[in-house]
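for the writeup, i need someone to sanity check this before i put it in the appendix. the sequnce is what the collaborator sent (i think, or maybe the updated version? ugh). structure was predicted straight from it, no edits. if anything looks off just tell me and ill rerun, i have time this weekend
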Amino acid sequence: MKIFLFELKKIWRQKKLLWLFIIILFSISGLFFQNYQKQSTMSERASKAIEPYISDNNTSYNNLKSIEMEGTLTDLQTKQLEEVIEVGKELVDWKAAIYNEKWDKIPNIEHEFLIHVQQYISHGGEFKSLEGSKLEKAMKKNDWLLAHNLSYSDETFPVTPVLYLKNVIILLLGGSSIFLLFLFFGNIITSEKEHHTWRTLTTQPIHKGNIIVAKYTSLLFMLFIFLLMILSIGIIIPLIFGERVLGFQYPQYVSTGISYSYISTSSYILRACMFFGSACLFAFAVVTILSNWLKNSFTLILSACFILVVGYFITNDVVFFQSTWNPYQVFHFRELVAKIPKSTDWLYLISALIWSISLVGISIIFSEKNTGLFNFSGHKKPFWNGQTKSNVRSIWAISVFEFRKAHRRGLMKQVNLLFSFLIVLGYFFLAGETEDKEKEYVKRVHDEAQQVEMFLLPTVKESIATLEKEQQTENIQLDLLRNTLAYGTKMIKKNKDAIASYEQGDWRPLVHYQLFQNRAANGDIDTGQLVIEYKTELGQFSIDASIAEKEWLIEHDIRPIFPGEYVRTIFWDDDIKADVLKAFQKIDNSGLYSLYYLFEKHVYFILILPFLFLFGSGLAGEKGKKYTLNFLKTQPIKERDILTGKTLNAAILSLVSCAALCLLVVLTGTIFNRFGDLKYPILYYDHPSIVESVSYTGHVTKNGGFHFLALGNYLWESMLLLFLILLLILVLSNFISIFLKSTFTIYITTIVIFTLGYLVSTQIQTDYSYLSPFTYFDIPKVVNGELAMVLNQPSIQIQNGCYVLIVSTVFVLITGYLSFYLKTRLLREVKVERSKDLSNRF
């Protein structure tokens, strides 16, 4: 117990809990501020949610009324009309309740509405917006609300405490939170070895097992504090500034396969905490056992993250490992919490406990080991056989010195080795997903034609024959059927040619078939009675972009990427995004497209962070317990050149390593598949102000215009932004090191500055976002013009981004140089004055 309290005191004095509290408070407050701002449009969202109901009801009412006017209304249709009228009345009351913000009345109105809709459907009516299980789900949720006397709440941007807390849980409890806990507390054992205090602990009359157990227990206590902070802040802020109705029993939808259910929000939150806590139990145990072999905090955190990431993806892809007793399975906690609760869910926690106890026990039993890969110590041969060079500029001398230090420490080697292994491993996962996508798409295309040929066309032919026998040659229905038959016949022919040619290695007919389907969706080809799937939901922008993309592929003879039928755009209907985004997500494992995928999925942030931790400490890396900065000051080097040399070395090594890793991504894809197409089209959104210009040469469509970037140009621009961003981060972190002594504080301050800067630039001060270097951190959205469209800032372009980043970097560099110069000069003057005072006294 005394050792445990001793560990807690050390953590408290390091002020890490204060930083953790600030980060959580900032994250939760920022999310609440966003939700609070959206409350003014709550009525609009509620009205939009019932618009499909109003549309369906009006359609049904008009159809039945027209039949009534013709005098052919049957008894069943009469009952339908009665129910439709009642549905309309309830919708009017619903609309009025929304307008008057009488949210507590909506569940009762919805209940009556759903009953009448159910009766209308039972009489043979059709209500498309509540087809199938949608009506049953709506009724179950409504019954839950009435049973617990709950009012309607805005679930998209909630401000009620418990619903808001649920959003906070979804945001904060994830892989990023585990990494954050690693960053704050993961080095609890290795820090003792770095500072050589581990030997002091082992000389005390304390068993090694007690020390390790105390440190592991303190990690679990920090997990408890972390969850407690999230739960308390997530409840208190909306209680003070939002609605004061807690709503613990508000229903949350959960599903497993085709089965679904509703659970209370409090149960949802508790389950999320349990699964996240189980994942952290195992993660901390991995850190503990790795501490037996690793003596460097950076290497420890990097290795632990590597092991957890690899285990996560292997578990995700191999069905055999998807067992309750596999500790990596619990890292899918977001998927687990969204499933229907089972009586065996507690086994995940038991499994994590067993694995954790086992790993901690192993770390106690086995003694510490040194590994040649991760521990670079011992005597090294001197550079250039110990010879030194005279007449070398101090900046260059300190840069060479820093390079030699980095080489001796071996951390760069570890980072590059681990990232290289991750790139190769990630490539094979991407290759497997690419193959699955290809097979899935080819099968879907084949099944589409088969269904039309076997089921639709025979029915159409029979209908045509029947109408022709009745000599109804001028019948509109007959013309419609003939158009359907013509389109279906042509589609089947193109489909079969595309599949057959593709199996023989010729993809051109497949691109022509996709273009044919895109034009049919656009209305350029009469499809008769056949409705093109997703035509309405995708929107005109997506259809026009899809047609232009296929024409580009045909013109440049470029191999398509699957599924590739439609181009994903930001104008897709929100209702279909969750279901369709994944279906139309293009995946390819060629060299160039693998690198594109790295940027598109924001994986480049994983490349930036290690270089920040390696080279971002600046002068603070020379301070601390060893305080080697005093030694450097004794050398014939200008003090301000120490900072400049460190920054120069950090920039060179980081940029070279980053470029090499990006090259490895391309090289891996090229070796195992192909290089890719430099001219593959990438959609670029053109701002309306550009589209309206006389010299515009792109494609004009609804919601604006667009053109295509060649993949090679896209990657070049993305790489350029990445290098400039990495350079700015390193320069800023080195600048901060002038004023702060703790490396940990420098890392956190740098991350907080850039996170705050990005949020302010893109959420608050959007009028000047193009002048902020933080805006350009979202590389894919800058390079493809999406951010310019979303923020309504046509000046957010790659060229302006480069100028802003370069100017910002130079400004920070000059400011840092002058600040360090003034600081050292001031300290020197203070020392002179003190020496004068001492001499006067004596």
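DSSP finds 31 helices and five strands in the chain. The first strand starts at residue 251 and ends at 256.
thx in advance!!
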